[in-house]
Amino acid sequence: MARLPRDVTTAVTWYMEENGISQRTLADNMDVTPGRVSQILSGDENLTLRTLAAVCVGLGAHFEVDLVSNNQERQVPHSPDSAAGVEDVKAAAAEAADQLVAYESALDELRARAAELRARTTGLQAPVPGLRAPVAAGRRRSYR
Question: Whose C-alpha in 64, 75, 141, 143 is 20 to 30 A from the C-alpha of 88?
Answer without folding.
Answer: 64
